Amino acid sequence: MPARTLGEDLVEGMLDAVVLIDDQFGIRWVNRALEQHWGVERGAITGKVLWDVFPHAIGTPQYHEITRAMRTREPTEFEAYSKPSRMWIEVHVRPSGAGLVIQVRDTTRRKRNETLLRGERKALEMAMHDAPLADTLDVLVRTLELCTDDESMASILLARDGKLYCGAAPHLPPAYNAAIEGLVIGPSSGSCGTAAFTGELVIAKDLRNDPKWADFKALAEEHHLGSCWSWPIRSNAGKVLATFALYTREPSEGPSIDQLEIVKLLSITAGLVIERQLEAEAKAKADRELAAANIAAERANRAKDEFLAMLGHELRNPLAPIVSALQLMDLRSDEASRSARAVIARQVDHLVHLVDDMLDVSRIATGRITLHEEILDVAAVVARAIEMTQPQFEHRQQKLVSSVEPGLHVRGDATRLAQVICNLLTNAAKYSDRGTTTTLSASATGERVSIRVQDQGIGIAPEMLPRVFELYTQAEEARGRDEGGLGLGLAIVRNLVRMHGGEVRVTSPGLGKGSTFEIELPLAHATAAATRANQGKHAAATRVPRRVLVVDDNIDIADMMAEVLAEAGHDVRVANDGAAALSSLDGFTPEAVLLDIGLPGMDGFEVARELRNRGAGAFLVAITGYGAQTDRDRSKDAGFDAHLLKPVKVDAVLQLLDRLAE
Fold this sequence. Notes:
Blueprint: H1 3-12, E1 17-21, E2 27-30, H2 32-38, H3 42-45, H4 50-53, H5 61-72, E3 76-82, E4 87-96, E5 99-106, H6 108-128, H7 133-147, E6 153-160, E7 163-168, H8 174-180, E8 183-184, H9 190-198, E9 202-204, H10 217-222, E10 227-234, E11 240-248, H11 257-331, H12 338-365, E12 374-377, H13 378-395, E13 399-404, E14 409-412, H14 414-430, E15 437-445, E16 448-454, H15 476-479, H16 489-499, E17 503-507, E18 516-522, H17 528-535, E19 547-551, H18 555-567, E20 571-575, H19 578-583, E21 592-596, H20 604-613, E22 619-624, H21 629-638, E23 642-645, H22 650-659
Parallel strand pairs: 13-15, 19-20, 19-21, 21-22, 22-23
Antiparallel strand pairs: 1-2, 1-5, 3-4, 4-5, 6-7, 6-11, 7-8, 9-10, 10-11, 12-14, 15-16, 16-18, 17-18
């Protein structure tokens, strides 16, 4: 077969369109592919000038490239978009004889795939970087528009609460977008509302005559919309999250297979993006709700703490003059009222104990208890607890037996550990009958110190044993007894013991068979100096009369304290507010000032600072119903030398006055 014939056969069978033109741009020959791509017959265009057949190309970049190749006789190639055919083409031009051979390749599918991949990649990157959802969806909508064959307009509508809301629609008229905002999802609600309802592709070829568009016909005509098809966007679980729609200006037959595949792929990406956004919104909402709940809880805790502190203060105030009056009677040795005073003293101690427990629970729960740790002699701590609770055992005609192994030491806060043992002993006395015996023992077990309180009381039912250390927990048997508590004491015991690195346990054979509480604390090896410091006791100083100023707006508290101190031999003056306290300095130079913090007008902190500013060298003692560490810190900062909590024991005040000689 001749070579030319073979070449013609090869070109004729190519998928690319091929045109041979002479030096006057006359079309000499075309292959069959050109007829198929452009829909023209070879016979109709052969012999015609190229620019007469394709007049729309005149003046375009491709026109200039071809004419330059003809002029320079140099090959060239370029890519262009053919509007009449709505195709992307790749053109190769090379000289042939006196003319040119032009090879045209359809690259529309490749360009669409590149555009599709580029759009999806950009949208996913934006989503990963938490770009606004509207911006990310805008990329996907524009990608669909670029990948379609005609001048169409795309949109994504988000489905929320049974309605559709605009996610992105950059080329649809804004007035149209506003008109369909909040479109109700239903079986005859346009293309998008119906697609969201059925979860299937919905095609409206002619919006003027489609029954699904009956309610929106005027809207479509107003904005010159001819057709619309819509595809549901789903989550991984299959839930319809949104719709992808494509509009045309004129009626159409609906999407091509290629268009449908493109929108399906873009819908998968859109679903991922929307679902991620919904998850982020849900997380942000949960975080906001959690933050709001935390703020509310913190506010409630603060309000509770302030209420408890105020309640404690208000309860301590009336107790203070009662305690002072009792102490005054004790100093005067009023034998006739001894029995009545003992009853009042026990009840006041019980009230003070309840107030302290109530405030301690709040402080422990919020981590505001600070331990003042040192090496402690266990025997001294136990003795202090016994001294505090002995009157309760005597009143109930109960026996308290103690046995402490000598030389035991722990590291801890003496006041708090004594409080722990005191709480256990108080419970033993409270929940045991008259004539019973409570045994307190302390011994070493390896590197631990074990302190056991065993009573012959009401016992604990097996089902209650795991709960006895919980807040507000009391067995029915305990509630019916006199002087029942608030269910706080054992919770305080457990928390304080744990703060010391120990554990507390309880055992009981059952109801009516008594209970045993055991505390285990790490054993400490005391140095000789530390042991001496804990075992040593200050010798009582010789009592010297002092000039004392008592300042309290509660007249009963002030007067009772003044009488008690006067009975002890001190020279006392009383003031009921800050101004009166400062005025009293004109004719009286106090060596000690017992100063209430909660004074009206000028509070105790201000009075203390003013006293220091005036050069007063008096020993300043804060007297208050507020005993939190923050309150003690404020007292110290204001210049106070000591901080006593109402109701104040006269012995504590007298000991402070005795220290003035040191």
